[in-house]
Amino acid sequence: MRFRQTADQLIPELAGHQQRFLIAGGGLLAVSVAGYVANPAQFFQSYLMGYMLVLGATMGSLALAMIHQLSGGKWGVVIRRILGAASRILPVLTVLFIPILLGIGHLYHWSHADAVAGDEILTHKSPWLNVPFFIGRAVLYFLVWNTLVFLLNKWSLEQDQTGDPAIAKRMERLSAGGLLIFGMTMTFAAFDWLMSLDPHWFSTIYGFLVMGGQGLTTMAVTIIALNWLSKREPMNVAATPQYFHDLANLMLAFVILWAYFSFSQYLIIYSGNLPEEITWYMHRLNTSWLIVGQFLIVAHFAVPFLILLFRKNKRVASRLVPIAAFLIFMRLVDLFWLIAPNFHPDALSISWMDVTLPAGFVALWIGCFVWQLRGRPLLPIYDPQFADAIPSLADGHHAAH
User: Fold this and answer.
1) Residue 324 Cα distances to 87, 280, 299, angstroms
2) Does residue 321 contact residue 223 with C-beta atoms inside 8 Å?
3) pLDDT value at position 401?
4) Do residues 259 and 214 lie in contact, with contact meaning Cβ atoms separated by under 8 Å?
5) What percent of the chain lies above the pLDDT cut of 70?
6) Alpha-carbon distance values, 291 to 52, 252, 274, 337, 350 (Å)
7) How much is the pLDDT for 277?
8) Contact present, 323 and 308 (Cβ < 8 Å)
9) Are 76 and 172 in contact (CB under 8 A)?
10) What's 377's DSSP letter?
11) CA pseudo-torsion sign 77, 82, 85, 87
12) Could you give the C-alpha distances from 231 to 151, 181, 224, 249, in angstroms and in order?
């Protein structure tokens, strides 16, 4: 049966795609090293932005895979291999976090002892915001996340090989606790890696805002990947318009969720009108950075919201994929809005490294994604919902046995 073959066997050109994207990503990242020589501070700012974009696609995939293990849903069966391949990129991203640790002094004002000594707020926050503890927390986050990725993918492979029905329950139990742990660790990681770029500012909803963006990135990437695979067996049978419709509805939900978190954060801080809270927005709304904020409102929320209200736009892949690709670009713009004004508070500033480093990360991520996709079947035939999700293929599977 063809749907029992690995992606490599079904799509031989995957190896070539992997090589091309890895070379392109490595080349763009290597070119950006010249920027480090000229302007190391800008290099690390752009590096952090590109890194958080691809980390979002990987961590969002892990979270969505656990959500599906708990909630079920036919849509999750069709994209389970995509989510698994994306989550297995995490070990690579763990290594790629090392340059951020090396650039702590360029990124985080609180890492300088003289700055802390002369600042009452930083002194008060120093038990949390200090370099050794920052590194220790990062190690803990990646240890927890990699453990979740390893166990879920290990058991998924065992399920493929043995068909043991007990494995599904095992993954469900892990996902129940894993989602709670994921939410906590990702919230603190968002505080550490992004919010502490401005150590005087704080927002309790910030972690949810970052995770909402990760979910949106994941849905957009998943739709694009599924569309590409749907032109080949066996995904041409599995990826029906109904499943694109379901995924588009989830993407719309994340668009709305991101907008809700963003507006809630602004409304609460605007209502409080406290000096230590409003400065973050003052830099963004009273300068040329306002252009980016207005663009986010229109292009990250209003336009995709209106387009995704129409049923045909959600069921026709040729219409849905450009929307998904545009939303990935808007996720980069949102990260630019969160990161760059902390270093250029007086005026909008765009560096060529803000283009090359994210582009390099995206190309490298795609190459790693293809690499992880290659070695397994494209459909989980022993998933408990496989027969309901893809009855035509399930009937063929049963007939073969």
Assistant:
1) 19, 29, 12
2) yes
3) 47
4) no
5) 97
6) 22, 24, 24, 10, 13
7) 84
8) yes
9) no
10) B
11) negative
12) 31, 37, 12, 22
Give the pair of three-digit tokens for residue 374.
């290659």
Give first-to-last CA distance, the chain, whole Å: 11
Q: Which domain holds residue 373?
A: 2-400
Q: Is 112 left (phi over 0), alpha (psi -120 to 50) or beta?
A: beta
Cα(60)–Cα(56) distance, rounded to whole angstroms? 6
What residues contact residue 238 under an 8 Å CB cut-off, 6+ apart? 78, 230, 378, 379, 389, 390, 393
Number of domains in the chain: 1
User: From the CA atom positions of the chain, what is the Rg in Å?
Assistant: 22
Specify the residue for token string 């995924």. 247
In terms of Cα–Cα distance, which of 228, 167, 182 is closest to 62?
A: 182
Please tell me the distance from the alpha carbon of residue 219 to that of residue 254, in angstroms, as a whole number: 8
- Please check whether residue 59 is in contact with residue 376, taking contact to mean a CB–CB distance below 8 angstroms: no
Using one digit for the tens of pLDDT, what is the confidence trace for 111-161? 999 999 989 999 999 999 999 999 999 999 999 999 999 999 999 999 988
Instruction: Give the pLDDT score at 358.
Output: 97
**Which is more confident, 55 or 239?**
55
Q: How much is the pTM?
A: 0.95
Alpha helix ranges (H) inside 5-112? 7-10, 14-38, 40-71, 74-87, 90-96, 98-102, 104-107
In angstroms, the CA 271 to CA 218 distance is 33
Q: Which amino acid is at 79?
A: I
Q: CA dihedral defined by 165, 167, 173, 174, rounded to 10 degrees?
A: -160
Contact 355, 139 (CB under 8 A): no
> What distance in Å separates the CA atoms of residue 11 and residue 359, rounded to the nearest whole number?
25
Residue 380 DSSP code: -
Helix extents (H) in 194-240: 206-229, 235-238
Give me the percent of the chain exceeding a pLDDT of 90. Answer: 82
Place of tokens 């129940």: 176
